[in-house]
# Entry
Amino acid sequence: VAHAMSRLSTTRLPARVLVVDDSAFMRIELSRMISSESGFEVVGTAGSGFEALEKIPLLNPDLITLDLKMPGLDGLETLRQVMHHFPRPVIIVSGSGERNPEVAAHARRLGAFGYVSKQLSSFTLDIFQIREELLAKLQAAAEMRTSHAARTLEEKPSAWISLKPEQLLAAPAEIVAIGASTGGPRALQQILPILPTDLPVPVLVVQHMPAGFSERFAKNLNAMSAVQVKEAVHREFLHPGVVYVAPTGTHMTVQRLSDSQSFLWLDIEPSNRMHTPSIDVMMESVAKAFGDRALGIILSGMGSDGAEGIKAIHRKGGLTIGQDEASCVVASMPRACAALDLLSCVLPLAKIPAQIVDATQPGKRA
# Structure
């Protein structure tokens, strides 16, 4: 932990920034302004709220600048979605607050880190008048995020880093169930493309994300993976070497007809869950159908969705893996499972693909 803390303080990387504004001129000027400071890197821009919500899980920016007045999904609703699905510091850069102070107040209530009033002009000179204020607020947000990461490392319980290798000798898994939220898309991009084409089991994935993005997310993962990745379809049969991503807005469960035949069931019920799809609902069905032949993996995410599902797999004798805190964007979900002593092991993200392959190979048990 001390070594990690020292590395954090001496090799701090530039803060990654996503610029969101419907004006192409503003996107260019704000990007130039932010990139001119050595402590920041603009990793992308978005011209609408929908584009921003699509890019955040792919780019994983540390900070976001966000205009409020945008067509389609306006800035306030975009901010609401960001804070719910991908919480991180957001600096509002808009002229709306000048005309309506309540808009600025509403943005702060929704979780905006700060508000910078941009000049209502199309001249570069006016735009650069906001430079000092914007960079100061971005710097404050970056420092807050770094301090939080340092505290998280410092407070990491010793049990977090312990492994239980003897538990990795369980019977070969016949299904893999993965749950993720904030930071999950990036983690999945480092896991699924490494899995081999001949993976002998199906993989179920529940990733919390805004409505309308699960199909495109699955297609993007499919394009970079050897295994097939697809959005799940109601009542389709499961096949080895295929990854099924739960559609946003419906729970995904598995029904087992026989040792060799299982199919997916999509439903809006139960309706009393905080997330739809729910990791718990998916994993509980996997535990019921596959028992000690299930492998449950909980990745980066905020909250505790997945703890009950991991518990169900754990109680049935299945293998349970948590992503280690150091490689998580937000470690709340795996931490909730670790606190209940439900994880067979905790692994760095880079080691999870190999463990999936090892755990699913026939003949591993004598």
User: Anything to note?
Assistant: The first strand starts at residue 15 and ends at 20. Residues 1-11, 121-125, 149-167 have pLDDT under 50 and may be disordered.
